[in-house]
Amino acid sequence: MENNQCCHKFIVENLDVCYGEFKALKDVNLKIKARAITSIIGPSGCGKSTFLRVFNRLNELIPNVRTSGKILKDDQPLCDMDIVDLRKSVGMIFQRPNPFPKTIFDNVAYGPRAHGLKTLDKLAEIVERSLRQAALWDEVKDTLNKSALALSGGQQQRLCIARALAVEPDVLLMDEPASALDPIATLKIESLIQTLKEEFTIIIVTHNMQQAARASDYTAFFNMDDDLAGVLVEYGETSKVFTFPEQKLTEDYISGRFG
Amino acid sequence: MAVEVESIIAQAKTRSSLKRQKISQTFGFILVWFCGLIAVAAVFWIIGYVLSQGLRVIDLEFLTTRPAGGVSGEGGMSTTIVTTLYLVILTIAIATPLGVGAAIYLVEYARDASRESKVVAFLVRAAQMGVEILAGVPSIIFGLFGFALFVLYLKFGFSLLSASLSGAALVLPTIIRTSEEALLTVPRAYREGSLSLGATKWYTIFNVVLPNAMPGIVTGIVLSVGRIIAETAIFWVTLGGSYHLPKTVMNSGRSMALHVYMLASETRAFDKAMGTASILIIIIILLNLSINILSRRLTARMNGKK
User: Fold this and answer.
1) Maximum alpha-carbon separation in chain A
2) Are B115 and A63 an interchain contact pair (Cβ–Cβ within 8 Å)?
3) How many angstroms separate the CA of residue A145 from the nearest CA in chain B?
4) Measuring CA to CA, which residue among B85, B250, B130, B225 is closest to residue B168?
5) For residue A84, what is the nearest residue in chain B, using CA coordinates?
6) Which of B193, B203, B306 sits opposite A94 (nearest CB)?
7) Pairing status of strand A90-93 against strand A37-41
């Protein structure tokens, strides 16, 4: 990969993450390209989700977690950033759709409201823009005041994407966003991710090899080492990783020999 | 051959054990039904007895005149209804913010803090044990405590203030524990969803966690209301027993339960005690029905079936 600093959204150097005594991630080094989709693959328990949660410092919710190493976002150390600013700029989509038990409107308006926006016109504008971006507007524009929990699973997940977009992030973290959805809803989410890539840097954790192969630009393969700590085995352009993997381990994994 | 015989024997065995299981199941079923029937019958008998004795004396005059005092127990119960209402409102107004606040601290903050430091962990554990123990302390102990602290030491006298402070101490454990449980049932995904949008912990608690815990918290509050309406001993030693309507929080008064007790123990008007008791029971029943309806509504709204 080219060493062009300006194109990298995140630079991770010597990252270690520990839960108490247990090392979840060991010495991870990689650079995440801006406005591209980077997928993170690997067997269960290899620290994929932990790695994803490094970028919005959500790991800090868990007591006894220690994160060490250098993580830069736009050349700025993550640990020096204000946590509110950081999380505003790095949105997250979770494995199971988790809309709040509020109306569709209130769900999308939640973030802006949390940051102090009160004017209803502005909020309505943001809600419409975000729902359009998340390809959900046409389906819900007449039912904005209905509970979000009445939506289908796929719609709920797109609502969560809209909710994240409403605070105008530049990065979207996705933790297996389609694993709880049916194939059609999955396709919709995937095509949505493709359009979002024009504006956002997307990091997506996935269990689904085909999804990673067809939908992402870069792929990082994590695996456990002998101490069960997660390590980065291989990282590169998706086409390369999937067709000419440099490591035997990667080849075994993507061809379905383990994991 | 041998194998066939064995399988036949095995079949017969399972058949007979199945039969035995069926019999013991029927027996158990009858037993459970019987227990349930006795419990329900006891409740209906008590309520029926009180109502049949009490409803006779209830009329508009009984409800709207104040007790006249004296050994004959003349007069109605009007002031006791209003005093009970005052007492409930004041007690809940004191206990709810304290109780819910304590629950928020214990669930949202203490857990993390106690992992960081052993001293905090010990204090939190002590607080939680304190709440558990307080929940089991007889109400008269709270009464004596209130009498010593509020009535005598702080010189509030027998008054609404003394009574509702003592009453708040009595229901605090209930409110803390029900609120704690309600907060714990709020899915972690909601908290993470809110925090990942850059909302602060405080904002998350007030806008996502508390609204979701509301059905449970409301249940705790309504249970406490019932407790305050029903308690007698604690208010006997803190509220006094004046049958006048309290004009300020520093005045003495008489709640309905206290009125029942005083009529039954100090006057000849046993029928009026039953009448007051009937009103008390009716209010408690209505209160319980309203909890059911309210919590079902709240839960339905949470789940999007508005």
Assistant:
1) 57
2) yes
3) 11
4) B225
5) B198
6) B193
7) unpaired
Give residue A2's pLDDT band: very low, low, confident or very high (50, 70, 90). very low
C-alpha distance from B304 to closest chain A C-alpha (Å): 5
Among the partner-chain residues B189, B191, B306, the one whose CB lies closest to the CB of A96 is B189
Q: Are B239 and B253 in contact (CB under 8 A)?
A: yes
3-class SS at A208?
coil
Rg, Å, chain A Cα set: 18
DSSP, collapsed to helix, strand or coil, labels residue B301 as helix
Contact B196 A164 (CB under 8 A): yes
Report helix, strand or coil for B238: coil
CB of B300 within 8 Å of any CB in chain A? no
Using CA atoms of B105, B109, B110, B114 in order, give the dihedral in degrees to the nearest 10. Answer: -170
CA-to-CA separations, B266 to B139, B258, B269, in angstroms, rounded: 22, 12, 9
Report helix, strand or coil for B122.
helix
Which residue in B51, B27, B285, B21 sits closest to B35, CA to CA? B27
Q: Which of residues 167-196 of B touch A (CB under 8 A)?
A: 187, 189-196
Nearest to A205 by CA among A165, A236, A176: A176
The first and second tokens of residue B137, run together, are: 């302390």
Contacts of A160 in chain B (CB under 8 A): 193
Task: Residue B215: list chain A partners with CB under 8 A.
Answer: none
In this prediction, residue B2 carries a pLDDT of 67
How is domain A5-95+171-254 classified at the architecture level of CATH? 3-Layer(aba) Sandwich (3.40)
CA B200 to mean position of chain CA atoms: 33
Ranges A6-15, B85-94, B146-155: which has the least confidence: A6-15
Closest CA in chain B for residue A109: B197
Mean pLDDT of A73-97: 91
User: In B, which residues are within 8 Å of A62 by CB distance?
Assistant: none
pTM as predicted: 0.81
Looking at beta carbons, which residues of chain B come within 8 Å of A87?
195-198
Q: Which residues of A touch B189 (CB under 8 A)?
A: 94, 96, 98
**pLDDT tens by residue, A142-180:** 999 999 999 999 999 999 999 999 999 999 999 998 888
Which residue segments constitute the domains of chain B, with CATH numbers given? 62-302 (1.10.3720.10)
The domain limits of chain A are: 5-95+171-254
CB of A1 within 8 Å of any CB in chain B?
no
- Whether the per-residue pLDDT at B191 is higher than 50: the answer is yes
3-state SS, A31-46, equals: EEECCCEEEEECCCCC
Report the amino acid identity of residue B126.
A
State how far the Cα of A73 lies from the Cα of A50, in Å rounded to an integer. Answer: 17
